[in-house]
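ok, trying the design again with the full structure, not the truncated one.
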């Protein structure tokens, strides 16, 4: 029995893995909750002709406090592991699930483009 994959099979497997792996996406803030420093974000790209789902409860990185508004641009990066336990407690703990690079485990970086500014209309 031969377990060697053909070139086409290796390429198909590689593409399947890449399509399920999330590292970073541009997005737009839909809403921001200052008390929890979390946002709902619409990724600013599509999966073929379909939009990505809205990302909810995304922790937002803010090196200096400033106002975040709907329409502001952001970059969402995705954790290697499930962040739920860490986000809830801030403590080091085992991941809650085996998720890897999931859309559920994003962090938002803001300040690239602000809604309504001349730079965001290009």
């Amino acid at each position: 029995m031969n377990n060697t994959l053909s070139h086409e099979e290796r390429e198909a497997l590689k593409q399947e893995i890449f399509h399920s792996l999330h590292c970073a996406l541009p997005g737009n803030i839909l809403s921001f909750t200052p008390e929890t420093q979390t946002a709902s974000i619409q990724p600013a790209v599509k999966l073929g002709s379909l939009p990505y789902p809205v990302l909810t409860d995304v922790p937002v990185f803010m090196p200096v406090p400033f106002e975040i508004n709907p329409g502001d641009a952001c970059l969402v990066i995705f954790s290697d592991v499930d962040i739920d336990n860490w986000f809830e407690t801030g403590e080091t703990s085992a991941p809650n699930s085996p998720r890897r690079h999931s859309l559920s485990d994003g962090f938002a970086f803001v300040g690239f483009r602000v809604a309504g500014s001349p730079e965001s209309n290009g």
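Keeping the full-length input from now on. The longest helix spans residues 7-20.
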